[in-house]
Amino acid sequence: MKATVFIKPGKVEVQNLDKPVIEKETDAIIRVVRACVCGSDLWWYRGISEHESGSAVGHEAIGVVETVGSAVDTIKPGDFVVVPFTHGCGNCAACLAGFDGDCLNRDSHSVGYQAEYLRYDNANWGLVKIPGQPSDYSEEMLNSLLTLSDVMATGYHAAATAEVKSGDTVVVMGDGAVGLCGVIAAKLRGATRIIAMSRHEDRQKLALEFGATDIVAERGDEAVAKVLELTDGGVDAVLECVGNEQSVETALQVGRPGAIVGRVGIPQKAEMNTNQLFRRNIGLRGGIAAVTTYDKATLLDAVLNGEINPGKVFTQSFALDDIQAAYAAMDERKAIKSLVVVADK
Amino acid sequence: MKATVFIKPGKVEVQNLDKPVIEKETDAIIRVVRACVCGSDLWWYRGISEHESGSAVGHEAIGVVETVGSAVDTIKPGDFVVVPFTHGCGNCAACLAGFDGDCLNRDSHSVGYQAEYLRYDNANWGLVKIPGQPSDYSEEMLNSLLTLSDVMATGYHAAATAEVKSGDTVVVMGDGAVGLCGVIAAKLRGATRIIAMSRHEDRQKLALEFGATDIVAERGDEAVAKVLELTDGGVDAVLECVGNEQSVETALQVGRPGAIVGRVGIPQKAEMNTNQLFRRNIGLRGGIAAVTTYDKATLLDAVLNGEINPGKVFTQSFALDDIQAAYAAMDERKAIKSLVVVADK
């Protein structure tokens, strides 16, 4: 089968690999219909983080179940599913608490989704069943369903851990696909004022379409001053969807006392002066999204009933054979997020 | 009037100072009935933090209002009140969000409560009216009312920011008066399993009386291992009531994914590796307690109806003239917390 393989920084290619098979009784094999490129893939694509040459890549997909292991009884061959990058078992302390991204029983990394087939463990609870078949949906709806494998759930995690509630004023740091999904999530949870930090016109436009009420293009101290001026003392919640040092520092300063910063940007800098949090009762939460939890509880319904349209983050589309171009478009900021059409719907 | 003055590390004394007067229209002058010594007073008493020699000290009291400024209309002379160490205005973004310990309109530090009289600003909203007069209450009840000026509210803040909810399993780090009040708060919020970290028999006993279900005497890695063994994956919430590096490190490791650490121990070390939080979705919240908010919403009623008895943290009592002995008893760990009887009830 065709699968995307990492060669070296700046280079991925489609190779012919063995089709995956059931290895454990909790596995499922999925025939991929749509996949995409994640902002986090750019870390190793750009050579910023280490990655093993020759490894299969990608961790976002929707597709149709082909076979299942003997312990899988909630999902059956032929089911159309969201394939989360997370692998929640549904039964451990983390999953039961609604943090399936940190499932204590997961035993495989999420890799190889930019391919014709993939193997998914903890299929019984982790996969999210979509009604009907891919052919029942428009291209736009398939795009939105695809975002439920990672980016939309990750944006939602920022809002959920920042504890955004009805009537809140929030700041969203980051205008990438995750930040834009954070805007959607903040609105979905009832925020009435959503300040998007963005300095790119195309992304500002999409942020406004998704529900942002204000755009702040400033950065650093100027951004903090602007938000405090706009809000009379700071916002109720902050979604940190970047992870670099400046963004995190800004995030910690724009909340009113007691505000929580929900982080989903992979932190660039580990060491932090946490006394600045204590002095103003600023909370810090976040981490890996609880994809299956959010999809099943909220997001799948919100996509299916048209309340949210996160698929608009895909501004360019590529065939699997053109995977290099899909990465390059994101790397060069020509695409907000690159869709990969793996098979006909 | 008699007032406690800091002389130098290890030495406080009662001096004759001018009685305070109304300085601002939002002030009240309070005749103090009971005061006490705080664990945080020991920082400068022990010379660990700087403190100006000759300054009046103490920040916990109950008493009777003597005079009020012209803008004070919710409190009148003769009212019996809890005098919080915080000074919430009730109207700013912090107070409205329930974080009056970080009031944006406070303009004086909380000092000079270990005295016959004190001046309190933001009296209109900040003070907490107690029904009746001091003479209507038993000594035990006065002790519990006194804890509402700081220690009980601070313990409650740890539980509130750790988001302890009904049915939770929690760990309380610290067996000082704040930690013991944290045990009370966790139980009040419905925690069903409360693991108290304590290695002192008298404090273990009080923790159990307050609602702790388990005692862990180990520290550091051994404490983490013990809690994980007791709880199958970690607790739902952690109350950090110490602030030293080892306690904070332990606190960050005993929660299940998604757990929140509510901190009220003044942090000894500012720099922290926050990636350990991100990797397990551990939240970090806390800071200065919202004393007036908690007292008015929950704690005053809970004390008055006998549901909680935090006054038991006072294990020794002193006259104001014996203030040096009151400090020494806490410094030498002979008292869990020292009560100071300033005037007859």
Automatic annotation (TrEMBL), chains A, B:
InterPro entries: ADH-like_C, ADH-like_N, ADH_Zn_CS, ER, GroES-like_sf, NAD(P)-bd_dom_sf
Residues of the Enoyl reductase (ER) domain: 10-340
Cofactor: Zn(2+)
Keywords carried by this UniProt record: Metal-binding, Oxidoreductase, Zinc
CDD domains named in the record: FDH_like_ADH3
SMART domains from the UniProt entry: PKS_ER (SM00829)
GO function term, MF aspect, one: oxidoreductase activity
Database matches in SUPFAM superfamilies: GroES-like, NAD(P)-binding Rossmann-fold domains
Pfam families per UniProt: ADH_N, ADH_zinc_N
Family according to the record: Belongs to the zinc-containing alcohol dehydrogenase family.
Name of the protein described by the UniProt record: Zinc-dependent alcohol dehydrogenase family protein
Organism: Weissella koreensis
